[in-house]
Design a protein that fits this description.
2 copies of one chain form a homodimer. Chain A is α+β, with helices and mostly antiparallel strands. The first copy, chain A, has helices at about 15-35, 50, 70-80, 95-105, 150-165, 175-185, 190-200, 205-220, 225-235, 250-260, 330-335, 360-370, 385-395, 405-410, and strands at about 40, 45-50, 65-70, 85-90, 110-120, 135-140, 170-175, 270-275, 290-295, 300-305, 320-325, 350, 375-380, 400, 415, 425. Chain A contains 14 helices and 16 strands. In chain A, strand 9 (about 290-295) and strand 10 (about 300-305) form a beta hairpin. At the A-B interface, helix 1, strand 1, strand 2, strand 3 and strand 4 of A face helix 1, strand 1, strand 2, strand 3 and strand 4 of B.
């Protein structure tokens, strides 16, 4: 029986027409990140399983695609009922960056400004618009305690959106330290605070009443002090002054970042707001967190934050780090929705094969043009001219060239302008000069 | 205890300095393939396991990284001692292309000229120079029976080498059909012929005596007819006329390809030879096979061939297909050996932070330059100027800019040319005009 030709559930193939926009966007991101002094890195798609599990990944750990041990190690694991997998596919690019930095720190500039554009894999339940393989575009500054790191990361991401012609992006900014301090003062013990943040993060989905109910049910937190702290965090989210007395240094820091972003990315930095209800999912954030939003998109276009302790896992003593990420798949969706062209780039010349007898001369023509650096799509074989022109049309070539016995006799080439449909005769020498 | 920060055994990280050459080469390959009218495709890294196993992959099937089933399906598989994995990482790009074509054929031009540059994974025993994750660069023509497909594929690959400045590449060409016909006439049954080819392929490693011994031991093939056929294939490998009477049509086809390649890639096609001892490993080749070699490299720089039946697996009736691949990792090694530059591309401007007090004005300077489209690496934070200049040096910036209180008073900026070491003062307006 024939095998199914579909990719596995939740995975995708990309046709040439899909790839044009993806490559254009990915090249823009790479160019902008580079122009801000970030350097590209690459890490292995597979990581040792113990790197991916344990503190750091939060909910995403449950979604790891695990790779089966091989050979004797598998037999042994089955006999002893031990862990059957030894490797896993990365589910984000932050953990791999932390491992990378720990491994190569002596060869890297300090601070290290890095970017990483690569696929990640999560065993999510497959559903519309949610994929099990998707691209992330991370940039990070490792080794800077300064809030300038946040300004750099956010400015670079805003500049990407600017270069892609995306208007109306807003930045929401908060500081985990503000939230933790408010929870502290309400008497919530530090070991509960991350979990409480995850509940507060559900505000958009379940509303204030839902948040209060969950705080009560899940943590037995319902004292007046807790309710007040939660309200402080959720109510009037853009008003930063409410934290002035609670955490003055952090409040000043956030004001500073907002102020300094103003000149960034052709004034896109004007659209930066404080939002005390912004949490961001990951456990590992320790300071400022931020998120990019667009009115046409529910959910975010990307985000990031400061994660000063993630590298401890690899034996690197507490090092300041801050990073951000663009949600590539969402960005592509949004750009497509906004009508961004997905036109494929065809070769300038399509060369049709008039007949078997003309093959040698046709090949010679294509070699000559190619050796001059021209792009040439040669039809591979002699077929009905009608089919060859259908092919040229699908491939979006600019000009079709035909070399028949009559043309050869006259030492000329028949050209069809595929935009206008006009046919004419030309010398070989005039071909490279045709407008694109 | 801290986790190891090394990537898994056999896997690699790439530092910025490694990536420059890899990206340059990959972009050159992509540009050349496109200029020949090939279109990019992408497929999922994971495939359903049954796509990867079964006829086609040969030895590589044993090297599949298998992905563990998840949740209830895993529990069930363990209870019933069934297959524990349902997905696998692709080990080449040919099988995924075959699946891709079967899935999307109605949306694709006919014939379909495709290329695919992507990583593949093989659970090889880790050893020096052999990696478990490596990049392949495939190009294929699906739906052309003409030998012009071979000419296109080989020409495109030769043009890549040409554009990379790689001289002395030779092409070795054979036709599986010639070999099979010789084996036929020696009375070797068709179902043994692929295995016999694998033995013949060991000629370089074990010599003629070794090949004869293996034919005897493994297949009990040692009649005079078999020995003669094997000798015909192995002796005088460049002499195509020895097949003129055995398989006249195929011999003519090969002569044709060699003849037509002559004008390709600025006459690199002159270095194409017939080699009757060339086999290429994969089972699925049915016609011409070819390989690219370089005198500085043992083994090949790439290769390919015709595989007219691979798509049957996916229910597509026999369709003509021909493809080739560049061994990306070997190509990079060779280029590095030949002294190709690996210099990182730094930002044009490095901006140092003179002091905390100068931060606002320094940020303003960087925003202004960036908004003009200049590349600017800003040091994220105030640090000792000595450390900042060490950083600028590592990052290979072109100019360092410093804004101290004196410069601000004079409405000027201090520039250090990092190539010459010369310092000077300049107005903001003259900065964008500095030579690269």
């Amino acid at each position: 029986m024939a095998l199914s030709s579909s990719p596995p559930s939740g995975f995708r193939d990309f046709l040439p027409s899909n790839i044009e926009l993806r490559q254009k966007v990915s090249q823009t991101i790479s160019r902008v990140y580079r122009s801000f002094g970030f350097e590209p890195i690459e890490t292995s798609a597979l990581e040792n399983l113990e790197v991916l599990t344990g503190k750091g990944g939060g909910e995403n750990e449950k979604l790891i695609f695990k790779v089966l041990k091989r050979g004797e190690k598998l037999t042994e694991a089955l006999e002893k009922s031990e862990e059957l997998a030894d490797l896993g596919l990365r589910f984000d690019l932050t953990l791999p960056l932390a491992r990378f930095y720990a491994a190569h720190q002596n060869d890297l500039p300090k601070p290290f400004k890095a970017f990483h554009i690569a696929p990640v894999w999560r065993a999510e339940r497959a559903q519309r618009g949610r994929y099990r393989e998707f691209t992330q575009c991370d940039l990070d500054i490792v080794g800077s305690e300064s809030w300038m790191a946040e300004v750099e990361v956010i400015s670079a991401i805003l500049t990407v959106f600017e270069k892609l012609g995306l208007k109306d992006v807003s930045v929401h900014l908060n500081d985990r330290a503000l939230v933790y301090e408010a929870l502290n003062q309400a008497g919530i013990p530090p070991n509960q605070q991350v979990e409480v943040c995850i509940t507060l993060d559900k505000l958009d989905k379940i509303g204030q009443e839902g948040v209060f109910a969950e705080l009560h049910d899940k943590f037995s937190l319902d004292s007046a002090a807790v309710v007040n702290a939660a309200k402080l965090i959720m109510d009037n989210p853009t008003e930063i002054s409410k934290f002035d007395s609670i955490a003055p240094a952090e409040a000043r820091g956030i004001k500073n970042i907002l102020e300094k972003l103003k000149g960034a990315a052709g004034n896109q930095g004007q659209n930066c707001f404080f939002n005390s209800s912004l949490m961001r999912g990951f456990d590992y954030y320790t300071g400022p967190v931020f998120e990019f939003r667009h009115p046409k998109l529910s959910g975010s276009l990307g985000g990031g934050g400061r994660y000063d302790r993630l590298l401890e896992k690899f034996g690197v003593p507490s090092i300041a780090a801050c990073g951000g990420s663009i949600g590539f798949e969402r960005l592509i969706l949004l750009l497509e929705e906004l009508g961004n062209s997905r036109e494929t780039l065809g070769a300038k010349f399509f060369i049709a094969v008039f007949s078997e007898e003309m093959l040698a001369q046709t090949l010679e023509l294509s070699s000559k043009l190619r050796n001059l650096g021209q792009s040439v799509d040669l039809y591979p074989g002699a077929a009905k001219l009608k089919n060859q022109f259908k092919y040229a049309d699908q491939k979006k070539a600019r000009y079709a060239l035909i070399l028949g016995p009559d043309e050869v006799k006259q030492n000329q080439i028949r050209i069809k302008d595929l935009k206008t449909g006009i046919e004419s005769l030309a010398d070989f020498e005039s071909l490279p000069k045709l407008p694109d």
